[in-house]
């Protein structure tokens, strides 16, 4: 895979992004914000986006200190390392390690053969874990050396987290949670959950919260027993975060508000209104008093955890990309898609190719869009039937190897509504 020139914009960042005083909004990404991590001292955050960029921010001023351009696809995962470095990973299957002030990654961790979906740092700071759609999890010694490859999942691995003793836990679209023992000679514990899994966080008392495609949040103990489950949304849960003290969980679903819950019993604490803007990523600040949320509208916003109020200026109506379709009942099914795809001929590509003129078009044929190699090998023409089948089976089954985020529409009426909407809004004439 060819490597782009890694570029870092530093001194010009304040001029580009116009940051003077922190307004509780981080502006600079050109696509949905897919990942957020905050440093232990609470002064800095790093974000990753569908626009292929990672940005290092000052949380004191809101200034974009550094823009990291290296990856050949969306940046799905970021991590703040204990020594002041950062890790970024994404659709190109590579992990880049960055030192502050350097114009290129100081090292690359390569070996995954599919998009990397998540990163986690071990409690002692010695190891970086990565989850990939190639069905594997890898443990990378940050001091150097070969990774430990963990195999067992039967589909996309979407999340990883460490328990307090260093035990690694992973969750995937195969509806399985794996507890990986530190002793390589011991078999992992596999726990079946009744839904594909998108997100995972460790909470207090060495328990774990897992977010499913069925919209349910489940609390499990380290034996894998489901202690509590609660319905958060009718749509898939796609982002979770836990407060630094492990006592609060933030959860976001496709096209829904952010929910704050008590980590002990999953009782609701408050709802944070996102005004219809889908949230792709969440992270508590270091002191736990505020919550950062990365949106489909390219912004990172901040909420006060105690009051539930959003800090800074209110969400403008125009930031809801679906506002123009208000009153169209068929449009609501498309809400989760607009983060990645445009509909109008003049709007071009986002993280995914434009859908303008999709019906009758061959797969992987939009000019100027960088498709995954697997997509370019497929023989599919997009019709109402094939688009419906894509969401009935899910992208990972219908178009294996795709960069498209995993999402199914199980209800036939909802799939029919999506097709009607696309037929009306993507016509070339």
UniProtKB/TrEMBL annotation:
GO terms for molecular function: electron transfer activity; heme binding; metal ion binding. Residues 303-426 form the Cytochrome c domain. Gene3D superfamilies: Cytochrome c-like domain, YVTN repeat-like/Quinoprotein amine dehydrogenase. Residues 1-24 form the signal peptide. Keywords: Electron transport, Heme, Iron, Metal-binding, Repeat, Signal, Transport, WD repeat. It comes from the Bacteria. InterPro entries: Cyt_c-like_dom, Cyt_c-like_dom_sf, Cyt_c_1A/1B, WD40/YVTN_repeat-like_dom_sf, WD40_PAC1, WD40_repeat_dom_sf, WD40_rpt, WD_LIS1/nudF_dynein_reg. WD repeats lie at residues 26-67, 68-99, 109-150, 150-180, 272-313. This is Cytochrome c domain-containing protein. It holds the Pfam family WD40. The lineage of its organism: Bacteria, Pseudomonadati, Pseudomonadota, Alphaproteobacteria, Hyphomicrobiales. SMART domains: WD40.
């Amino acid at each position: 895979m060819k490597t782009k020139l890694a570029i870092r914009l530093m001194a010009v960042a304040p001029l580009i992004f116009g940051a003077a005083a922190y307004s509780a909004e981080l502006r600079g990404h050109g696509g949905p914000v897919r990942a957020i991590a905050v440093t232990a001292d609470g002064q800095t955050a790093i974000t990753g986006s569908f626009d292929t960029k990672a940005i290092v921010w000052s949380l004191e001023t809101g200034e974009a200190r550094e823009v990291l351009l290296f990856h050949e696809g969306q940046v799905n995962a970021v991590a703040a390392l204990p020594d002041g470095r950062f890790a970024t990973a994404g659709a190109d299957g590579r992990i880049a390690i960055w030192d502050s002030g350097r114009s290129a990654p100081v090292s690359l961790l390569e070996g995954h053969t599919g998009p990397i979906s998540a990163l986690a740092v071990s409690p002692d700071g010695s190891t970086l874990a990565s989850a990939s759609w190639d069905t594997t999890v890898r443990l990378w010694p940050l001091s150097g050396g070969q990774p430990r490859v963990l195999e067992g999942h039967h589909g996309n691995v979407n999340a990883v987290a460490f328990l307090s003793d260093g035990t690694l836990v992973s969750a995937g679209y195969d509806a399985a949670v794996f507890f990986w023992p530190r002793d390589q000679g011991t078999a992992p514990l596999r726990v079946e959950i009744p839904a594909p899994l998108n997100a995972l966080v460790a909470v207090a008392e060495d328990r774990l919260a897992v977010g499913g495609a069925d919209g349910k949040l489940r609390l499990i103990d380290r034996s894998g027993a489901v202690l509590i489950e609660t319905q958060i949304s009718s749509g898939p849960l796609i982002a979770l975060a836990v407060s630094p003290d492990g006592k609060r969980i933030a959860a976001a679903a496709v096209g829904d508000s952010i929910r704050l819950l008590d980590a002990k019993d999953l009782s609701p604490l408050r709802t944070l209104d996102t005004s219809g803007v889908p949230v792709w990523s969440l992270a508590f600040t270091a002191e736990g008093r505020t919550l950062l949320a990365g949106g489909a509208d390219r912004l990172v916003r901040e909420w006060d955890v105690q009051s539930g109020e959003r800090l800074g200026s209110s969400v403008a109506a125009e930031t809801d990309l679906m506002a123009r379709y208000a009153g169209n009942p068929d449009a609501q099914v498309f809400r989760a898609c607009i983060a990645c795809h445009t509909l109008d001929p003049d709007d071009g590509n986002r993280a995914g190719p434009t859908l303008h003129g999709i019906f009758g078009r061959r797969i992987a044929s939009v000019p100027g869009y960088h498709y995954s190699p697997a997509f370019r090998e497929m023989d599919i023409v997009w019709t109402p039937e094939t688009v419906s089948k894509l969401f009935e089976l899910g992208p990972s089954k219908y178009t294996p190897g795709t960069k498209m985020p995993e999402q199914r529409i199980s209800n036939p009426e909802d799939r029919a509504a999506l097709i009607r909407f696309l037929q009306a809004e993507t016509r070339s004439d």
